[in-house]
Structures are given as structure tokens and as C-alpha cells.
Amino acid sequence: MNTIQDKEGVKRYMLSLTVNGDPHTVVVKANTTLSQVLRNELALTGTKQGCELGDCGSCTVLMDGKPVNSCMVLALEAEGREVTTIEGVAEGAKLSDLQESFVNHGAVQCGYCSPGMVLSAKALLARNPHPSELEVREAISGNLCRCTGYVHIVEAILAVSEGRTTPPEEANAGGEA
Amino acid sequence: MYLPDFDYHSPESLDEALSLLAGLGSGAKVLAGGTDLLHKMKQGDLAPEALVSLKGLDELKGINYVEGRGVVIGALSTQNDILYSEVLAKKYPSVSHAAKKMASNQIRHLGTVGGNIVNAVPSADLPPILIALGATITLASTSGKREMALEDFFVEPASSVIEEGEILTEVAIPDGGFTGSSYHKFGLRRSGALAVVGVAVSARVENGVIQEARIVCASSAPKVIRAPKAEEFITGKTSAPDTLAELQAIVESEVRPRDSIRGSAEYRRNLAGVLAKRALIDAVESGHGIHAED
User: Fold this and answer.
1) Fewer CB atoms < 10 Å away: N or C end of chain A?
2) CA distance A27 to B242
3) Which residues, in sequence order, are bridge partners of residue B170?
4) Is residue B218 within 8 Å of B228, Cβ to Cβ?
5) CATH number of A97-171
6) Topology of the domain covering B180-285
7) What's the whole-model pTM score?
8) Distance from the A12 Cα atom to the nearest Cα atom in chain B, whole angstroms
9) CATH code of domain B7-53
10) CA atoms lying within 13 Å on the CB side of residue A5
């Protein structure tokens, strides 16, 4: 791995990785986490930093398709890997079905957990297109929503697995009681 | 939150990694999944001068059945590799089940079996079921390899016999005579929670009679421990309710839990006995398969 050393002896490493399909090369210190590279070097601030200890899941990204906490991954460990952030989920200005479903189900409240939730859900549906409610709950159990909006989030994910992005019609027909 | 500064090395073979470690000495730490190591560094508990990343060591990956050795699990296998392993699903679903009980999906994609062992905390979820199944581990250094029973690896409190310059390369579950095994964990939540207590049991059962058993407890002492008196007691008996009640009492007398924010010593003592009983019933009645609750 190519390094440069400053006069105080601190090394910087040349890191190449693919983010949302685009190749990037950045120069980082070894102590930089993947979440810091995404936010500070690549300006992809959709990836949130919450607890920064691997508990809350707000920094979730996909690395080679698998959800990981990017705060617990050294940037240098992502050398040569393919990373997907929330910015890579929509197709241009068009939201993905999952994002559309989150919006339509009111599954976004303060929004801080939403990028991680969507990526955990995306990984689940890629592996298991028709999960049970329990499987959905397990898949997002590493993503904490402090607005406690889990019910709508689970419904939004299940809807996509059933080919919908909106709540079932009977739920809409009655309106608010 | 920034980590302290350190040098980073990513060797491409085990030999290269071992030479690097030998040269760097006590200031270097091995980086596998990083979920424990980076956590400690972020908390200020560790500030290594250098990290030697194992990510390029493909020889430490994979879960395979090897004739004569049993199920060989590369140390870099992640907890999700264990959870989704077809080999383990066939031979020891109980091991996959223990992995499923760990942390969260995101952490299970990073954390490795080698790290879970070398971190050597008494609450680790994989060591109990691996010890119950008689697993051995291999430690490599520039002076060669040594193999030992996993149960001999841990030292109280929360430490191990690993030496500077050594890397844990693999875990092997031998084709033992055990006909069943199970791991029961009680955590304060179903996800992202350390074990308040975890108990693994393996058993060799013939015509309903237990010929041999291992009972291994996590979060029940300053290291993962076996309960030898309980193991001896249950040998030659069946899993009749009266016998199990006695077994519970013996396990409760053998564990040495402490008070912590996760549970009082008294509560944990009782929990260890109850979980041992439940795990034994599974090991006797359900083979290595997972129990109905999940």
C-alpha cells in the first residue's frame, strides 16, 4: 500500500475503493474510519454517525452487498471493496421502491436512522425477497430508531416484499378515525 | 470520534503476517473484524502502535469438513459465515444458532470467530458451544504451530494463553461421540445484548441414557467455565425431571458469577442452573438441531 510520511512521522495511505459504482482514490491516515471517509472526503453525508461504537446502526452501509457499521470499519479495510451508501440507492432523482415505501408509510420521522434502515432492508430483500415480519424485525434489529417508529418501518419493508410501495387499500379507505 | 494514530500493515500471507508481528513486538495488535479492537481503541482502553490486518489472508477463511479432522472453521470466518454455513447447518446447527444470538446483523458481518475467542471475555457466545463440542484451536507463530483444546486457552480473569506474535488460525470441531448439543443464552434484549448468562451443553446419549456430557457456562465466572461436578452427576442418568432439578442445583453451586449492570450474582447463579437444564433437554431430545423457541 502506497504511503507518504509527514515530517512528524505520521503516515498517510493511498486508498482505492468503489462507492456507489464510482471508483475513488483518497489519501487517509490509518485511524480514519470508513464512515469518516464517506462523509468528510467524499461528502456523502447521507451516512450518519450516531453512537460510533457499532450499536445504533445509523452509519450502516453495504460492503460487497453486506450491511456493516461503517464506524467500526477502518477505511483501509475497505481497500478494493464495493461500498453502497444511501446516495447509491435511488436511481438519479427517482427513489427506489424501498425509499418510496418508507415515505408512503410514514416510516421517516426525524430521519436520522432512515439511511441505515433502508440499507439493512435492501440487503435483507436481496437475500430473502419474501421475509416474514419476524425476519424483517431481525434484519433491522441493529438499527435503532429513537423516534420508535418501528411499526411503520416494518410495514414499509413488508410492503415492498409484497410488490407494493403504499399501505394496503383498506387501511386508506377508512381514513383516520 | 477519532481513533488514536497507529501504523497499518496488511500482509498477504500468514507467513508475512507472522514475520511482521514478530518484528513489531508488543506495540502491535492483530486486526480481524475489529468489532472488539476498534471499540477498545475508541474507548481509550487500547492504543497500539501498529495494527496488522488479516484481511488479505484468504488461507484463514472458509468452513469445511475435513476427513479425520472434523469441521474446520477458519479463524476469519465471520459470525454470519457461521450462521449461514451449509457445513454447520448439516453437522452442528447448534453452533450456527449460537452465532445467530450475537450482536446485530451488521456486527456479525464483521466480527470473526477468531476474534471472539482471542478477545477472551467471559460473555463470549461462541466459546461455550465450541468447548462443549470438544473444539481445538491452532495458534501460529514464526516458531511454528501449536494446537490445544479451546477450553485450555482461557485464563482468569478474561485473558488467555496466547503469546505475543501468535495468530489464531483455525478452530476444529472433531467428530466426537456427542449425539446432541445446544446453546441457551439469556440477554436483556434479543439483539445487540451480551449474555447475562449463556450455557452450552453437549451429550452422548444411548437408549435415553447420558453416557457423557459437557456443560459450559458463559458470563458465569471470570472466564468461560465447565461445570465438572454437574457433568459427572448427569453421566449414566436420563433427563428425568427429578434428575434435572438436582443437576440445576449442582450447576448453581459450581458457577462463580459477579454482580454487574446486566444482572446480580444471585440472579445469574439461578439462571445458569435453569439454562443448563434447558440446554441439556435439547441436547438429549433434539440432537444438534435448534430448539423450538426460535
Assistant:
1) C
2) 66
3) B74, B138
4) no
5) 1.10.150.120
6) Enolase-like; domain 1 (3.30.390)
7) 0.95
8) 9
9) 3.30.43.10
10) 7
* B80 min Cα distance to partner chain A (Å): 10
CA dist., res. A130 & res. A120, Å (int): 15
Give the E-state strand segments of A20-136 in sequence order: 22-29, 60-63, 66-69, 82-84
Task: Note whether A68 contacts B3, CB cutoff 8 Å.
Answer: no
* CATH architecture, range B58-173: 2-Layer Sandwich (3.30)
Which residue has cell 472458509? B62
Chain centroid offset of residue A83 CA? 10
Write out pLDDT tens, residues B180-209: 999 999 999 988 999 999 999 999 999 999
In whole angstroms, what is the distance from residue A52 CA to residue B80 CA? 21
A-chain residues near B4 (CB < 8 A)? 31
| CA-based nearest residue in chain B for residue A49 | B1
**What is the C-alpha separation between B117 and B159, in angstroms, rounded?**
10
Indicate if the alpha-carbon torsion angle A70, A73, A74, A79 is positive or negative: negative
Which CATH number is A3-88 given? 3.10.20.30
Under 8 Å CB-to-CB from B229, ≥6 apart: which residues?
Answer: B250, B253, B254
Instruction: Please state whether A65 falls in left (phi above 0), alpha (psi between -120 and 50) or beta.
Output: left
Placement of cell 478494493 in the chain? A80
In chain A, the residue whose alpha carbon lies closest to the alpha carbon of B53 is A77
Return the biggest CA–CA distance within chain B.
61
Q: Give A48's Cβ-side CA count (13 Å radius).
A: 19
Secondary structure (3-state) at B75: coil
For A144, name the nearest residue in chain B, comparing CA atoms only: B192
Residue B30: helix, strand or coil by DSSP?
Answer: strand
A145-172 pLDDT, tens digit per residue, is 999 899 999 999 999 999 999 998 755 5
- Contact between B45 and B29 under an 8 Å Cβ cutoff? The reply is no
ipTM of the complex: 0.94
DSSP sequence for B31-93: ESS-TTHHHHHHTTS---SEEEE-TT-GGG--EEEETTTEEEEETT-BHHHHHT-HHHHHH-H
- B8 and A120 within 8 Å at the Cβ level: the answer is no
From A49, A63, A142, residue closest to B104, measured CB to CB: A142
